[in-house]
Amino acid sequence: MQKAQKSVFIVDDDTFHLEIMQQLLTDEGLNTFTTFTSGVDCLHEIHQNPDIVFLDHQMDEYSGYETLKKIKRYNPDIFVVMVSAQEDIDTAVATLKYGAFDYIRKDLHLPANIKAVLAKIEEIQALIQAQKPSLLKSLFKFL
Known about the structure:
Elements: E1 8-11, H1 15-27, E2 33-36, H2 39-44, E3 52-56, H3 64-74, E4 79-84, H4 89-97, E5 102-105, H5 110-131, H6 135-141
Parallel strand pairs: 1-2, 1-3, 3-4, 4-5
């Protein structure tokens, strides 16, 4: 499945995990992504309006929470997926409360979880697109 049309940001202060995420997303057919090692760097480029942001939960400078809140304030339509090594359910619930689309763990199931979250995003985007009236329909409505 070709997903090249999606713009993706990957934000993680651990370069090893950045490389893993890049490879996993490439394996899923995504090849338009930008990587950042801090939430601050990501926020400086948020004007590019990525479709999806994979955001590490625990980072220096700005935490994943702080970065998430600022991204959602800038554009609530960006799909933000929090990625964390923490298993704490309260952390997962809090990130969803702040507007994250999903919360996935950095564990052995990461490849399958990335695939699943990308499929959910595709499904939601297709539903949104199907509900948008076409430009011609909109124009004829006023004639």
